[in-house]
Amino acid sequence: MDINRVLRGMAGVIVLISLLLALMYSWWWLLLTMFVGINLLQSSFTGTCPAMWLLRKLGFRAIGDEEHT
User: Fold this and answer.
1) Three-class DSSP category at 2
2) What is the reported pTM?
């Protein structure tokens, strides 16, 4: 599966979970939503994202990426 699709899916799931937790338990869970939003915004400017590093370590690759060994 393409790493970009996995990353977008991860961000969406985290946002939805944090919204659900905010409604059920505490509004403080919205800080997690804010963190995801800030991370997405900074990655649009810098082109880097900590989650991409983790996903690459787990074996996900972008379409067209080839291992150069």
Assistant:
1) strand
2) 0.78
